[in-house]
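Hi C.,

You asked whether I'd gotten around to modeling the 76-residue construct. I have! Everything is below, sequence then structure, no commentary in between.
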Amino acid sequence: MYPVEECDSVSDHYPQTCACCGEELKGFDPNPYRHQVVEIPPIQLHIEEHRRQQLTCLHCGEKTRAALPETVEEFG
């Protein structure tokens, strides 16, 4: 159970009437039963495309493709 200070929101729910006789209820519970719902937000993909251009040498005709920068994983 997380401390109440770490909750993003807190909602108090009060019974309106007695479960036994149906009489209207009033007051405050100093020690309410706590129930927490923890949700993990959806993962957001970050897609980055790196285009390795291939150029042809005008002198010899050899085709050369650019390498990926060292900071970019080959398979990722």
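If it helps when you're writing up: Strands lie at 54-56, 63-65.

Thanks,
B.
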